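Bug #77: duplicate submission created two jobs. Keeping one. Sequence:
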Amino acid sequence: MKNLWLCLAFCLTTLVAHAQLQVRGKVLDQSTNSPLIGASIWAEGTGRGTVTDMDGKFVLSKLPEGTWTIRVSYLGYESITQEITIPTSEELIFRLQSKEFVSEEFIVSATRASETTPTTFKTIDKAELAKRNLGQDIPILLNFTPSVVSHSDAGAGIGYTGIRIRGTDQTRINVTINGIPLNDAESHGVFWVNMPDFASSVDNVQIQRGVGTSTNGAATFGASLNFQTDTRQEEAYAQVDNGFGSFNTWRHTVKAGTGLLNGRFAVDARLSKITTDGYVDRAFSDLGSYFLSGGYYGENHMVKVNVFSGKEQTYQSWWGLPESLLETDRTNNYYTYENETDNYQQDHYQLIYTGKIGTNWKTNLALHYTYGRGYYEQYREDDDFADYNLPEVEIGGEVISSTDIIRRRWLDNDFFGFVGSVNYISDNGQWDVILGGGANRYDGDHFGEIIWARIAGNTDIRDRYYDNNAIKDDRNIYAKATYELKPGLNLFGDLQLRGINYTFFGVNDDLRIVDGEENYTFFNPKFGFSYEKGNRTWYASYAIANREPVRSDFTDNPITEVPRPERLNNIEAGVRSRAGNFTYNANFYYMDYKDQLILTGQINDVGAYIRENVASSYRAGIELDGAYQVSSAWTFGGNIAFSRNKIAEFTEYIDDYSVEEFRQESITYSDTDIAFSPNVVGSAIIEFKPTKNLSLNWLSKYVGRQFLDNTSNENRALDAFFTNDLRISYSAQPKFFKSLEVNLLINNIFNELYEPNGYTFSYFIPGDTGRELITENYYYPQAGTNFLLGVSMRF
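Kept job's structure:
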C-alpha cells in the first residue's frame, strides 16, 4: 500500500508540474441563453480539452502562448470554432444553435417516470456511474442509492453479485435495457456476471422503487432498473481504461466511436476484459464482453442496432461459509475440485427505431433476440447410480451402486420478441398519452450431462440423465396518460393488461417427469397525481401488480398444488425539491402483499424445498435522500430509509431425524420480520474538491440487522454493519490526450468484517433428552480493506 501511495503521488506531481496559461468561458443555448452542462471544449493542435460545469462554465488550462482554434461541441447542437490569442484575460462566450434530431431519450421514455410522474424514482447518469466504475458489477455501483443492499459471492464485487431494494431481491426487480426485458423468463433472476463491464456502455439508469410505471417483462414487485445504453457522440473519440487492484484484479477496456459521419451516421464500440482471483479462496472470475452500436440519425427518424455480449467463467463459491469458520477462516471455500466452475455466454441483438410523426406524435419500436448457453460443472463424490437413472454395476461378483462422477448442468435458451410505444402530446401540452406493449417468447432447454465417472458401467460421455424444455409467451399492452388539470396539477393514470402462457415438459434434474401448462391474465392499474410549485413537486399514487410463480414453483411442486400468483398493492407519496445548492427527496411507501411466495422449509415428495403462499405481509417505510453543496469545494449527500417489514402469520417446517421414520414438524409464528429486510439502510457521501481537477470522496454505508429466514430468530441473523470507502479522483489535460483521469478506490478502509448475505436451515436429531434442534447458518463474507486503481485516457 505504501508503494501504491508513492506511485500515485509521483504520477500526480508529474501531471501538474507544467502549468501554463488558461482560458475561461461559458457555453450557452443560443435561443434560451441557458447554460449547457457537459459541453466539450477543445483547443485544436494542443491536445488540451475540458467540459463545462453545472453553470456552463469552463477553464481550459495549460495552453501555450500563440493563436489557437477553439472548438466547442454539444450533443444536439451545431459545433462552432473560434480563434483566440494566448495570453488573454477575456471571458469567452459561446452560444450554440440546436440541431434537429430525434431524441434517443424516447427509446426509454415509455417505461420511465418523469418529474410529473407520481412515483418514487432516482436517475443516475453516466458521470455518476463512471465515478465508481473500476470493473465491479452493477449491484456494487448502485450500492449508495436509497434502500439498496448489495452483495457478492466471491466477496470483492466481481463475479456473482446481487442487489436488494427495499428488501426485495433481484428476482422481483424488473430490469430492462432500452425498454427490452432482461430478467430470465423462468427464474425472474438477473445474472450480472453475464454482463461484465456493462456499466461502461450505459448512458443512464433510472431506479423506480415500488411498483412504478408499467414496463415490459416480469412484474415489478419491489423496484425496477431501466437502463439506456450509450447515445451518439458528436465527435470521434477513443478511450482506454486500465486498472488493477487487490486479489490480482485486472481490468482492460477499449472504447472508440466515429462521431457523426456526414451529420447522420455513427458507430461506437467497446471491448472489455476483467479478471480477478476473488476474496474467497479459488473464487476467480474470468470475464469478457463487447458492445457494438451503429445508427442513422435523421431529423425525424432514427434507426439503431446494438449488439453486445458477455462471456464468463467463475469458480463456484455458492456454498458460503459455515458460521463456525467466521472468526478463523473467512476466505474458506467448500469446493476443491479444480474445475468447479460456472461457464456461460449471453449474446444480445437489438434493432431500434424511433421517429416523429407530425408535431404531436412520436413512436418507438424495438426487435430483440437474446441467445444464452452455458453450464456449471460439479464433482460429486459417491453419488448413487439411481440418481442418474443408471443401472448398478457388477464387477467380479460385487454389485456397485454408487461412484464418483463429474456432471454438467446446462441451459440453452432463446429469448426474442418486440416492444413498442406511441406517444401523443397535445398542442397545448395538457395531454401526454403513451400506448405501448410488447410480445416476447422464451424457449429454454435444461439438461444434464455426465462427462466422467470413476466407474462408468454402460454409459457414454455426455450422456444426458435429464432433459426438459420450457416455452413461455409473455404479452402486455398498457396505456398511460398525464393530464394537466390546472397549472402545476397533473393527474396520472396507467392501465396494463398482461397475459402469460407457460408450458414445460420432460424430465427434471431429480428425474421426475414435469409436464404442465399454466396460463395467467393480469390487470395492473395505477393512479396518482403530482403538484408542482416553485422548485418542489408533491406526488401520491396507488398501484397494483400481479406476478406469476417462478420455474421452481412449478417443477418442485406437484402440478395439482402449484402456488397461487402474488399480488401487491402499493401506495407511494412524497416530495421532490431542486432548489439552488440543496436538493432532496422524501417519501413514504406502503407495500401490502397478498399470497407472497416464501420459503417455509417444507419439502415435496422427493425432498426438494418448496415455496408457499403466505396470506398477508407488508413493507412500510420512509426514505430520505438529499445533497447540499456548501461551497465550490464541499458537497454533502446521503440517504436513509427506515422500514417495517412483517408477515402476519408464518409456518415454519423443520426436518425431524430424531424418529425412526422421517417427518417434518411445523411451528407457527405471528408478526415476524420478512427475511433480508433491514429496518434501517443508509449511506453518506462527502466530496471535497480542493482544486478543479482533484476530488476526494468519503463514502459510508450502514445496513441494519437482517434475518436469514422469516422466524425473527436472533440466532439466524446477519449482524448490522457500517463500512467506509475512500475515493480519490484526479483529472488532467496533458498533451496528446483530451483527458486523463486517475481513480483510486479504497474499499472498507477500516477493515470491517461483515456479511450482507447468507442462508440457514434447521433440523432435529436424536439427543440426550429425546431430540436436539440443530441450526446451521452459512454466510458470504465480504473483503476487508482492498483497493482498485484505474487510469482512463481519452483521445
